[in-house]
Amino acid sequence: MAAEDTWIGIGPLAQRAGLAASTLRFYEAQGLVKSRRSQGNQRRYAKETLRRVAFIRIAQSVGLSLDEVRAALATLPEQRTPTPADWARLSRAWKPMLEARIAALASLRDQLDSCIGCGCLSLKSCKLYNPEDGAARLGSGARYLLGNRPSEVTGPAE
């Protein structure tokens, strides 16, 4: 196999990965993938970059930020394909964060039929229009989504 067979151009890589070439350039600018330049000054990526791109896309699809993805990729070897042990280590590190996100989404799902903010269920009684909103004393934001319960509100905010 010739040395060039281990490298792939940006167009074919983008097509195989199912994304735009501009996304690959963005990932490169963010330090998530690396390329080298051909004699004609074209980007060439190691074929293993396809696995890194798949990893980035999967991580983003479950809600990880690019900073979190970058930190994870920094722990992976650059000169060899990640092993099952590498992936297992990453998945163990992400499980608590993903479980917390799942719990937050489940809470949101379960509360969509009631107010997730102040509990008023009415724009006429909303905190924006009603400064005596009882949930306001529990703090700012969507208090019930953040874990407070209507039973914690005993009266108007002071």
Give the total of domains. 2
> Taking all residues together, what is the mean pLDDT?
79
DSSP strand count = 3
Helix and strand run: EHHEEHHH
Helix content: 40-55%
CATH class categorisation of the largest domain: Mainly Alpha
Please state the second-level CATH architecture of the largest domain.
Orthogonal Bundle
Strand content: 5-15%
The structural class is: mainly alpha
Key features of this structure:
158 residues, mainly alpha, Multidrug-efflux Transporter Regulator, Chain: A, Domain 2, 3 strands, 42% helix
Task: Summarize the structure in words.
- With 158 residues, this protein is mainly alpha-helical.
- The chain folds into 2 domains: 3-94, Multidrug-efflux Transporter Regulator, Chain: A, Domain 2; 114-158, no CATH class.
- 42% of the residues lie in helices and 6% in strands.
- The chain is built from 5 helices and 3 strands.
- The protein has helices at 10-17, 21-29, 49-61, 66-74, 84-111; strands at residues 7-9, 36-37, 43-46.
- Strands 1-3-2 form a 3-stranded antiparallel sheet.
- The longest helix has 28 residues, at 84-111.
- The radius of gyration is 24 Å and the shape is elongated.
- The model is unreliable at 127-131 (pLDDT under 50).
